[in-house]
Every structure is written in C-alpha cells, then in structure tokens.
From TrEMBL:
Coiled coil segments of this chain: none
Membrane topology, record value: Multi-pass membrane protein
Chaperone found in the keyword field: no
Keywords associated with the record: Cell membrane, Membrane, Phosphotransferase system, Sugar transport, Transferase, Transmembrane, Transmembrane helix, Transport
Residues spanning the membrane: 40-68, 80-98, 110-134, 155-177, 197-217, 229-258
A GO cellular component annotation in the UniProt record: plasma membrane
Protein name, entry field: Phosphotransferase system PTS sorbose-specific IIC subunit
C-alpha cells in the first residue's frame, strides 16, 4: 500500500482545516476534524480503506480522549496525530500483515500516533509563532487610526495570512511525511521484525498508552468516590454483555435521561413545597 501525490495533498489540506479556526471555528476544526475518531474516517476515505481508518482512529482516540489545550498549551498535537499518525499506522499495519482489529495493530497505531503527536508540538508552536507576526501587522494598522487601512488589513490578518502559517507548518510537513511514509514503513519492516525486541517494546508501550488516556479522563471527570461506581458500571456492561460502543452509548444516554429527570424533580420540589405552604396559609386565614 502506498500514498500518492493527490492523497498526500488531501491529507495536508485536512491537516490545515483541522487547525485553522477561521474554517468553521475551533469546534468544527480542532475539536471535530482534528480528532482521531473523526479523522480516521477522513483518512480512510482518502486512502481507500475506511474500515482500517476507523479502527485505527478509534484506537488512537483513546490515548487522547482527555486532551485539551488550556491557554494554547499542548502536550501532543492531535492534528499531526490524525493526519500523519493514522496514515503511517495504516501503512505499517498493512506492511506488517496485521489484522487491523487485533491488539497488536491497536498497540502499533497508539505508539506511532504518540511519537508523531510529540513531534507535532513543534509544528503547533511554529504555527502560533508565525501567527504572532500577522497579529503585529494588525496592531500596527490599528495604531494608525486609519479606518480604510484597518478595514483592508484586518481581514487579511484574520483569514488570509494564517493560511501561510498553516501551509508551512501543516500542509508541507504532512505532505512530505506521508509521501515518504511507504519507504519509512518498509525500513521499519526490514529492520524491526515482528518477533524482535524493538517491535515487542513498541507493542508493550502502545498497549499502555490507552490506560494513560483513560486515567487523565478520570482525573477530570471523577470528583467524588461514588463516581467510580458509575464509571466502572459501563466497563462491567461491556465486559459481561459484550456490547459494542454504539450499544454502550445508547445505554449511557438512557441513564443520562434518568439522571436528568431526577435532577429536574429535585429542582421542582422546593417550588411545589412553597406553593403548598402558601395554600395552607390561605386556608388558615379563611378559617
């Protein structure tokens, strides 16, 4: 399996769209197109292997399930993980002859994604640094108080110049790495046999990374000891009933609806009690 020029260009384009807030906002870009779970489908469509793309995207998403960017600080760049890590993982899985749904394939994808995500932080901060240059142009225009110049400059600073940053630090690296991906994966296959220490180490590290992602998620959502019971209940259902993700999501939505109705009932109880008290006072006055 190889990646041609058109496919590499499309992957680079989506890497730009995934990190460019002006294209639909951060919600559509970074937090939708940039997520491995969504990007896996996009990469699968581009490379012509949708099932493997979705499986690899889901495996990598678990590692970064709780990743946020507070104040622009990132420990790993999911844009690079999605549009560089997933294509390389798909190539590696095919080159090694692994079953995409196997544990070994998921571990390999997680390890490659983590490596690419760490490298991608350089690209992230490179984009942010160059964007500061464009912002300085906008501030200089504002200081002139020349409204014609301001109206002419601000759209360029907000919507045109950032494309230069993302082309340099998103499109170009993604295009080059994906084009060289086949040879890189072939070298991995030649010098890192499946039964060697290097590949076994890679599989071991990759199998541990999802646990790190889940642990970070628990740290964010678990506020009291009783929350662990709810958290473990979902794993119990999946383990005992062998439900897939869609079935687990439906069950979770059902319990969320029950909790919502209970909270609504609690909120309405003081109002009902107050109305009942007012009615009792009126009856006493009538007597």
């Amino acid at each position: 399996m190889t990646i041609n020029v058109l496919q590499a260009a499309l992957l680079g384009l989506f890497a730009c769209l995934a990190s460019l807030p002006g294209m639909g906002g951060t919600t559509v870009g970074n937090y939708t197109l940039g997520r491995p779970l969504v990007g896996g489908l996009v990469v699968g469509l581009i490379l012509g292997d949708v099932p493997t793309g979705i499986i690899v995207g889901a495996a990598i998403q678990v590692v970064y399930i709780a990743l946020v960017t507070p104040g622009g600080t990132v420990s790993a760049d999911v844009r690079a993980v999605t549009y560089i890590g997933i294509p390389l993982s798909i190539l590696a899985i095919h080159a090694q002859g692994l079953d995409p749904s196997s544990t070994e394939a998921a571990s390999l994808a997680a390890a490659l994604g983590a490596a690419v995500g760490t490298i991608g932080t350089v690209l992230f901060y490179g984009t942010a640094t160059l964007n500061l240059v464009w912002q300085s142009i906008g501030w200089k225009a504002m200081e002139t108080h020349d409204w014609k110049r301001i109206r002419r400059t601000i759209p360029l600073v907000d919507f045109v110049y950032p494309w230069v940053s993302h082309i340099l630090f998103s499109f170009v690296p993604t295009f080059i790495i994906c084009m060289a991906g086949s040879s890189m994966v072939q070298l991995m296959k030649d010098y890192m046999p499946m039964d060697g220490i290097a590949m076994k180490t890679l599989f071991t590290v990759g199998s541990l990374l999802p646990a790190v992602g889940i642990a970070i998620l628990c740290k964010q959502v678990v506020n009291k000891p009783l929350d662990w019971l709810t958290f473990a209940f979902g794993f119990t259902l999946a383990a005992c009933l062998h439900m897939n993700l869609i079935a687990c999501a439906i069950v979770a939505a059902f319990f969320a609806l029950i909790k919502y109705q209970i909270e609504e009932a609690k909120a309405a109880r003081p109002a009902i009690a107050g109305a009942a008290g007012a009615a009792d006072e009126e009856e006493e006055e009538d007597i």
